[in-house]
Amino acid sequence: MIKKAFIVLFACFISTNLFADFKEGKKLFDQKCAQCHKGYISFKKLKENFYERNNTLLNLKTPTENMLAWAIMDSSRKIGDPNDEDMRTVEIEMYLKSYLANPDLNNSICDKSALKYYNKKEPIQISDEEAELLAQYFMGYKKDRLKNMPKPKKTLTKNIKEDRVLKKAQSEGKHIIVYATSKTCYFCKKMEKEVLSLDEIKNKMDEDYIFLKIDVDYESLPFNLKKHFKGMTPTFFVLTSAGELLNIYPGAWVKNDYLQILKENL
């Protein structure tokens, strides 16, 4: 009898769960959570904020909505089994109710490197229905995000014709530098302002190199460099006039170090 009653109760719970709506969950989040948790911020900018600028760029006191969704659904400390959606919903509901009732940062599933910047959260009691709606919201967040904001398709920029670049490099006796950058990269902007914009640097590059700037968020790296790219911006690839890779320099460089890079590859 006990086993049968449990099955009936569990079936009723799952049946009720089917009525939970992602849109209603979003509405609840906007009403009760958005006043503390900011909306979507790209992970590229979040990484820059926390790992490169010690939270001085965004000054976040709580995780953003996409950080919460990622922590719950995709992080190494994610909640539940991705292969069992029904049970996972139950586990997320239980986690939300438990953590919000006793919000201890030491028990948080959020990125530990960001926790030190967050304010201590006051306990909040939420109902079973609210926990269910929020669970549905977080479970559907990624799919909804991708549907409404598809990732840009990367293409090789029309301004770069590899054969023409190689022909120019060979005729002028120059090497090639491919500069992998991003508009959201703080250290790229810093290096462009403090190093790459200097006349001494520009003259040296013009003398010995063909310089190609590639925004990796929207453009594919030429000369099959994608297989060597580790995702760090800035990264400088130095190639021969025949397009053969000589060296890779990830990270930003000060003037004298960058001049040394230009010299040691000749």
Automatic annotation (TrEMBL):
GO MF annotation list: electron transfer activity; heme binding; metal ion binding
Pfam families the record matches: Thioredoxin_2 (PF13098)
Cross-referenced InterPro entries: Cyt_c-like_dom, Cyt_c-like_dom_sf, Thioredoxin-like_fold, Thioredoxin-like_sf, Thioredoxin_domain
Keyword list, A-Z: Heme, Iron, Metal-binding, Signal
Entry keyword Signal: yes
Record domain Thioredoxin: where: 145-266
Signal peptide (UniProt feature, chain positions): 1-20
All copies of domain Cytochrome c, residue ranges: 20-142
Keyword Signal: yes
Protein name (Swiss-Prot/TrEMBL): Thioredoxin family protein
Organism from which the protein derives: Halarcobacter mediterraneus
